[in-house]
Amino acid sequence: MMCLTFKVMVPHKHSPLLDSLYIKGYDVANRMILDRTKTSSKHWKEIPCVVAKALSSKYQRNKKLKKISRLVLPICGDKGKQVKIVEGGVRVPSLFKKEVIPLTFPRPIIGFIRQVEFSKVDGQWVMSYSYNTPVEQKIEPNDKTKVIGVDRNSVGNVATVSTPDGEVKFLGPSTAGITKNFRNRRSKLQRKGAKTALKKIKRKQSRRIKHINHIVSKQIVNLAKKHNSAIVLENLSGINKGKSKRYVKKSQWSFYQLEQFLLYKANLLGLPIYYVDPRNTSKQCSKCGSINATSGKKYHCSVCGYVAHRDANAALNIRSRWVEQAVPSSAAGLIGDSLNQRTNEVVQLESSGGAR
Predict the structure, then answer these.
(1) Considering all CA atoms of the chain, what is the largest pairwise distance in Å, rounded to the nearest integer?
(2) Which residue, 4, 215, 261, is CA-closest to 107?
(3) pLDDT digits (tens, 9 = 90+) for 319-339
(4) Domain range list for the chain
(5) DSSP for 38-91?
(6) DSSP 94-110
(7) Model pTM?
(8) How many CA atoms lie within 13 A of 187 on its CB side?
(9) What is the pLDDT of residues 159-183, one digit of tens each?
(10) Are strands 230-234 and 147-152 parallel, antiparallel or unpaired?
(11) Secondary structure (3-state) at 299
């Protein structure tokens, strides 16, 4: 079972009520922060009791919070008592009485809606709703070589994938082209001092990256499901050091977000995710295992003469490193004798959590 969160537009007829509640709620939430001893809803009678309780839980109990810049109006589902599932959508009696907010459930629902949150985005009220959904039984491939290697790229396509049958796929658009475009636009706005426009372009870039990461992560898990395979990624937990930190910062692409999307999508389909050491995945020859200097996107091995796309070579190495770790040494010759002398740290994560 996993908790997922989706968003739906709130009908315009409810906007006046939510606008009024936002003003009152914003004042109440800030007073809650100033006096954290008043935790009971009886102290905040200007707003509905269920809203006061949720605001106290979300803002007042967070002792590190000093100021609220953008309020969210939360309501706990209270096991179906405060947020009721009806035909065609849900009802929130404490706010809208018998009015129904139309929505669908992209995934099957278990039980009840856990919580809803109302927020205003670009002048439009949006409701986020969270609920539990079943996950498929975890796949444990009998053949440990049935994995797909995924190389996440700072330059070029978002990801490059190596399948169990040796096929290489390039997924997503050019990350460098997208980030360069937004970087140039932000630079021009900064010189003009257009702060409002600068905030809008930053939000637009964030939405664009999120949208692409959703698409690419879905393509990866669907490919793994098709091959009944596990997914292998590079362990980039130490990426915020040295040259790697500057490289990722310059690329401005959210690798962590892509990984989180992969984790929850794979968990829904019962697909395991493994990790391997990322060192020299782009420099090592996927045929003979020798290390070669790289320049640009073309990879050329000075030992065996192997020529390939640099990202394709990296994806093949990522997959091969897991194969070497998972299968007996007699089968590890697939990736060269030099790899047999290296011990790679492999971490298996059991993915869990929600998605937004």
Answers:
(1) 77
(2) 4
(3) 999 988 876 543 333 333 322
(4) 2-133, 147-349
(5) --SGGG-TTS-HHHHHHHIIIIIT-TT----SS--EEEE-GGGTSSEEETTEEE
(6) HHHTT-EEE---SS--E
(7) 0.75
(8) 6
(9) 999 998 888 999 998 887 888 888 8
(10) parallel
(11) strand
